[in-house]
Amino acid sequence: MTPSKRFCIFCGNTPTNKNKEHVLPQWLISLTGDPKRVVNFGMNHNTGKIPRFDWSSFVFPSCRLCNEKYSELENQAKSLILRLIVHNSLSARDYILLLDWLDKVRIGLWLGYSYLHNNPTKIPPKFHINSRIGQKDRMIAVYTIDTALKGLNTFGAETLGFQLQPSCFLLKINNICLLNMSWDFMCAARCGFPFPKTTFINNDALLECSDYKINHKVKHPVIRRRLIKPAVHLYQPIIQAPLTIDNFPNDVLLRNKLIIGSTTKGFI
Ligand SMILES: [Zn+2]
User: Does the predicted model carry a pTM greater than 0.90?
Assistant: First the structure.
């Protein structure tokens, strides 16, 4: 990518006070082995080559301020991951925070691989980390692995399919695997949240929705496709923009499903 096309992976603008963001943070790289270990980073479909370098060099442009804004989230996510790898339980509030962090990592990986593989789809990104955290239905599943070996892997994020739809990936951290999924109205209908009966992709390749409906029942399983049985799996429905609870002023059932202080985010 030419320097003129460089953008901040958080805000999408030309980076100010240029900085480098580790989309897989340094604390995570250190937690899982030698930070200088060399790994493969998918295949560049433009060149047919497999980029190969150390984890610590897996960095992409960002504004300094954008980068610093997430330091608290990183600190909190670190403490939660440290608890998960020793099999401590987390609260619902902890998991919501972890879902924010996974949104950040997933979109960071998507934009990072777009940089690294010279944007194989040639579609300019329409959102970035800042505009995607906590915006759409999302889920996390935690799997434990019986191993004493350290290691860090992402599965799915390096593929061409992920470039087209960055909605699902797996993150292996030492002895745990985190499955994370998020897309438009992923679980809204079955969690009693508003979902559109009519959708179409407009000329700008954006999803347009209308004719919203709410089924107030929560149905199980929340996602019909069966998962390999995880230790924990949690789903968070979110009233998707441009709507908020203000569009449903008389819907007490829906209001009661929101976390305190939020006009869009549901319980998990
Ligand atoms: Zn920025």
Answer: yes
